[in-house]
Structures are given as C-alpha cells and as structure tokens.
Design goal:
This is Tetratricopeptide repeat protein. By secondary structure, the protein is an all-alpha fold. The chain is 79% helix and 0% strand. Helix 4 packs antiparallel against helix 5. The protein is elongated and about 65 Å long.
Length: 148
C-alpha cells in the first residue's frame, strides 16, 4: 500500500509540474517571435512526452496489479522462499535458484500467462528489472489474448 501511495503522490507532483511547464510553453508561444515560438513548442513537447510515459506506466502497473489479484484468487502466487541477508536483501544464489525453476516452468508452458507472471517476479528478485518488465508485458498480453 505504501508503494501505491508513493506512486500516486509522485504522479500528482509530476502532473502539477507538467501543467507549470506547459503554461510556460504556452506563454512563450503566445509571445509571437520566431525564437519564443520555437522554444515554446519545444517546452510543450516535454510535458506531452511525460504525460504519455506516465499514462503507459500507470496502465502497466494497473494491469500487473489485476493479474496479481487474479493469480492470488486462484492460489497461484509464488511463495516467498528466498533466503535473505541479515540486512533483508535477497541472497543472489537463492534468487538464481528460484529463477531457474521459474524459467523451466515458463519453457514448459510458454502460452500460460501465469508462468510468465511468476517469471517476471523471479526476474525482479534477481534484480533484472528490464527483463522483469518484458516478462510482465508478455503475461499481460497473453492474458488479454493479444499477439505477442
């Protein structure tokens, strides 16, 4: 829950920032000279890109959360069996061991979104965030019946 609150607070701060930057871009365009119009358009592009990124990130998080809830209702969420250091960090060898099992599970059932979801968690635990995101995107696409 703490992560969701943090996410929404940061998203709100970003939206306020985008509005402020967008207003500056608008005022630059309204100024009317070639230089200020050029800068104004450039400044307006930044909030547009930021809003697009925020929208896609939020949509991804909501879909992943929905899959998590569905998998939990089915009793299919992976059990946390990872060994942790005294400081609470995940032991690398333990994460690699669980990852190997999840990868084999996914290779056995490549069209099952549940195995891809569990693989994404294993990638995350192994601190491989880009691959975790790709595996979660694959799980979402398989769940929604999209071509992957």
């Amino acid at each position: 829950m703490r992560a969701k609150i943090t996410y929404f607070v940061l998203a709100a701060v970003l939206v306020v920032y985008f509005v402020l930057v967008g207003s500056r871009g608008y005022f630059l365009v309204r100024e009317g000279t070639a230089l200020t119009v050029t800068f104004g358009i450039a400044v307006l592009i930044l909030p547009a890109i930021g809003l697009w990124f925020l929208w896609h990130t939020t949509r991804f998080a909501r879909k992943a959360d929905a899959l998590s809830a569905k998998l939990e209702a089915e009793g299919g969420l992976p059990v946390d069996e990872l060994v942790r250091t005294p400081g609470g960090r995940i032991d690398r060898d333990s994460a690699d061991e669980v990852f190997a099992r999840r990868r084999a599970e996914t290779e056995d059932a490549p069209d099952d979104w549940r195995s891809w979801f569990r693989l994404a968690i294993a990638y995350h635990d192994a601190r491989d965030t880009p691959r975790a995101r790709k595996a979660m995107q694959k799980a979402i696409a398989l769940h929604e019946g999209e071509a992957v």
